[in-house]
Amino acid sequence: MSELLAHGEGTRPPWLDRLEAAGLALAIVVGSALLWIGVPVGSFWVAARITPDGVTAVLLALLAIPPTMAAFGWLLYRASARYEDLRGVPERPRSPPAWRTSLGEERASERRRTSPRSLIDVAMTVSATAALIALTIWFFFFAEMHLSPLP
Questions:
Q1: Whole-angstrom Cα distance, residue 130 to residue 144?
Q2: What is the DSSP string of the chain?
């Protein structure tokens, strides 16, 4: 097996780097969706299984979701850093957020041309938007509302 991985002076063959990059890209996209949908749903499900009543389950889930999402997000950004290294993308220069950029400075199109969006940024934005849309559809069309009557 080591003969297959040996290439030149002990470097990895390019196909292996491409395969790893493809796997990381898939993990980033699926992981972004899991971050916004899977972690909250899974936390509520686990909390409902291990607590005796609904109020405690909701409280436990609401306390568990933020640190779980933070840890999962950190893992995604580590995967993203490895993905960008494999692709050979130079590290993006630090720049102020868009809301702090003056209108007289460079335009957004110029910023995107010199520093394109990374896969993790696009995947997180799309998955967070999809999660909000799914939540809105569920809330307005499928959730059972049990409102108490007015006195």
A1: 22
A2: -HHHH-BTTTBPPHHHHHHHHHHHHHHHHHHHHIIIIIHHHHHHHHHHHHSSSHHHHHHHHHHHHHHHHHHHHHHHHHHHHHHHHHHTPPPPPP---GGGS-TTS--HHHHHHHSPPPHHHHHHHHHHHHHHHHHHHIIIIIPPP-PPPP-
Structure tokens at 99: 């809301």
How far is Cα 111 from Cα 88, in angstroms, rounded to an integer?
Answer: 19
The model's pLDDT over 101-149, given as tens digits with 9 standing for 90+, comes to 666 655 656 655 666 788 999 999 999 999 999 989 988 888 776 666 6
Q: Residues 89-110, buried b or exposed e (16+ Cβ, 10 A)?
A: eeeeeeeeeeeeeeeeeeeeee
**Residue 106 φ then ψ, to 5°:** -60, 150
Q: Give the whole-angstrom CA distance, residue 68 versus residue 60.
A: 12
The token duo for 122 is: 């696009």
Q: Is this prediction's pTM over 0.90?
A: no
Measured distance CA(29)–CA(22) in Å, rounded:
11
